[in-house]
Amino acid sequence: xxxxxxxxxxxxxxxxxxxxxxxxxxxxxxxxxxxxxxxxxxxxxxxxxxxxxxxxxxxxxxxxxxxxxxxxxxxxxxxxxxxxxxxxxxxxxxxxxxxxxxxxxxxxxxxxxxxxxxxxxxxxxxxxxxxxxxxxxxxxxxxxxxxxxxxxxxxxxxxxxxxxxxxxxxxxxxxxxxxxxxxxxxxxxxxxxxxxxxxxxxxxxxxxxxxxxxxxxxxxxxxxxxxxxxxxxxxxxxxxxxxxxxxxxxxxxxxxxxxxxxxxxxxxxxxxxxxxxxxxxxxxxxxxxxxxxxxxxxxxxxxxxxxxxxxxxxxxxxxxxxxxxxxxxxxxxxxxxxxxxxxxxxxxxxxxxxxxxxxxxxxxxxxxxxxxxxxxxxxxxxxxxxxxxxxxxxxxxxxxxxxxxxxxxxxxxxxxxxxxxxxxxxxxxxxxxxxxxxxxxxxxxxxxxxxxxxxxxxxxxxxxxxxxxxxxxxxxxxxxxxxxxxxxxxxxxxxxxxxxxxxxxxx
Length: 507
Description:
The chain is mainly alpha-helical. It is built from 20 helices and five strands. The protein has helices at 13-41, 48-66, 69-78, 85-101, 106-129, 136-153, 159-164, 173-196, 212-226, 261-279, 295-310, 314-327, 336-343, 361-377, 385-397, 423-442, 446-451, 456-465, 475-483, 490-503; strands at 2-3, 83-84, 235-237, 243-246, 249-254.
């Protein structure tokens, strides 16, 4: 039975014991994150054999704690204890994790951990060699292992749905399918209208060469201005940018292309959005679900909100264009309008997801969603992935990859065994629009504040309405708490229609 937090006078002893067990389990997971970060950023190339065994050992011990009789007895004892709403949320989340974990043999968990650690350098080498066939055996093995994993958890459920629930347990695969179908239906006509538009945007405003070291100094300045907490974070380079950590140590990575200074800027702002969510989680709940992010849809909403609604806004460039000009020569003639147009162009021939614009990005997601769903169901053989990938790109984007590196090898996710992950990028983008609309309603003249470089009001709104709750609420409940409405794609579609209609002079 749950009670209001104000009614609680003393924490039950059994809950304290339960929390100690939970924190041991969680800390092992956080340690694994640091090892994964190190493997991506710092580890010597030949460190994989040892690292795979280290991560496998951590996964096995973590799994053993989660599935232990001790934790099971504590949860049983708590069933009859009067708990606060927050305590009940912790029990709910750990019970869910335990229910899934007890279905899976420790040996399988350890094997998946080891194989994914080994698959990462294999994928990296295959991408560098532009040869999918060298990665295919590892991918086939991971597909089989993840099918087996899903079978243990829910033998009567679609295995892809079970894997999707690893990343988004509360919105449901049916919601993901509904949203992606709506985007697949409504975005292509807008994209086609843009491609047929005669609008003359300043797309060549940043043509040139930009030294990587100078770009690093610029993106560090951007992080400074946005309010990144360097005492609890750091910036590094990685082939595939990411953010990871806890509220005490939330790190970001980026990458640099000397022909594209905006690429690094938006990659960094995107990962900053993830890090701000992590850093905004309550310190006092570290090591419990109340101190963790509410899954990937909400996490991605934060990165896409900062990257697109803030970073690609005209207000952003009114503040940051002078900063950019301080770091690079030959930009004196670039105006705010030029920068805004260059940052929001819709590409006709981009093959790379992480370099995609706001609109075509979601077609990239649809391709991945459909392919991995077919892989897990057995409707697509691993050896046929490159052709299926290329066919879908031609169907949805009108372009066809010529190499595996720019095609099905471009993403790291499958080497991590992350099947069911990709749709959360689009789900998060949709939620970002809904949250930003709510923030605009609540924060007085938000656009003017961004123009003046005042980012704290938006950050404080997000901390109050999203970050500070951790996993107290299920996803749709959190959305309703923050916005007053259930999760909907309406705000995203209205936002892109209005924004790109104005940019490209559409009727």
